[in-house]
Amino acid sequence: MEHRIVFATGNEGKMREVRLIMADLGMEILSMKEAGADPDIVEDGKTFGENAEIKARAVWEQTGGIVMADDSGLVIDYLGGEPGVYSARYMGEDTSYEIKNRALIDRLAGVEGQDRSARFVCNIAAVLPDGQVVHTEETMEGLIAMEPAGDGGFGYDPILYLPEYGKTSAEITIEEKNKISHRGKALEAMKDRLKEIFREETVR
Ligand code: IMP
């Protein structure tokens, strides 16, 4: 089996989180840049899973081996799942999250309680050396806050209220968030899947 995993992202913060969580696999974790890959990626999937696989496969075509990628976003039930796979592009890539967050809160004016249910979703795809793909998907459940709160985190964190904490995702610490976040849990689940796959390979 391979001794390294390439993670298809250009985001250094994401790489740090991935390296931390995957450390006990005992494998080298490279960014796509470190692996020398620079593919043109068109994320035109309809689901988080499709987009994660599109990214992982585009890098895998250039590197082979094991390549992982993630795709995530905010899903608001009352808005039929918006912004969903368009989370980064919602109202335009260059629009500030202050404006995007305000706009989403305004679209939920008059909506109360559980009808404000929403979640962050993260799907991780891993393309294996033989081209097969495995996925994990996890969520962080909450409600759209009545007002944005907190300056930790990024993106939509200030408007996802977590009832069990009595705080938004931007008000909890990064350590707390990594433990319960959609991405943290999906990465942990992928680590377990890969361990199983490696175990089956050594038994065979
Ligand atoms: P990507 O998976 O890196 O493409 O991220 C998609 C988008 O979803 C981000 O740009 C954010 O708008 C949103 N998003 C994903 N995860 C989070 C999170 O943990 N907090 C806040 N926003 C998030």
From TrEMBL:
Top-rank EC class of the record's enzyme: hydrolase
Active-site residues (renumbered): 71 (proton acceptor)
Cofactor(s) annotated in UniProt: Mg(2+)
GO cellular component: cytosol
Entry binding sites for substrate: 9-14, 72, 154-157, 177, 182-183
Source taxon at top rank: Bacteria
Documented EC number(s): 3.6.1.66
Any one of the GO BP annotations: nucleotide metabolic process
Catalysed transformations (reactions): XTP + H2O = XMP + diphosphate + H(+); dITP + H2O = dIMP + diphosphate + H(+); ITP + H2O = IMP + diphosphate + H(+)
GO molecular function: dITP diphosphatase activity; ITP diphosphatase activity; metal ion binding; nucleotide binding; ribonucleoside triphosphate phosphatase activity; XTP diphosphatase activity
InterPro entries cross-referenced by the UniProt entry: dITP/XTP_pyrophosphatase, ITPase-like_fam, RdgB/HAM1
Cofactor binding note from Swiss-Prot or TrEMBL: Binds 1 Mg(2+) ion per subunit.
Xref: CDD domains: HAM1
Binding positions for Mg(2+) per the UniProt entry: 71
Assembly notes: Homodimer.
Described purpose of this protein according to its UniProt entry: Pyrophosphatase that catalyzes the hydrolysis of nucleoside triphosphates to their monophosphate derivatives, with a high preference for the non-canonical purine nucleotides XTP (xanthosine triphosphate), dITP (deoxyinosine triphosphate) and ITP. Seems to function as a house-cleaning enzyme that removes non-canonical purine nucleotides from the nucleotide pool, thus preventing their incorporation into DNA/RNA and avoiding chromosomal lesions.
Family according to the record: Belongs to the HAM1 NTPase family.
Protein name as it appears in the record: dITP/XTP pyrophosphatase
Record organism: Candidatus Lachnoclostridium stercorigallinarum
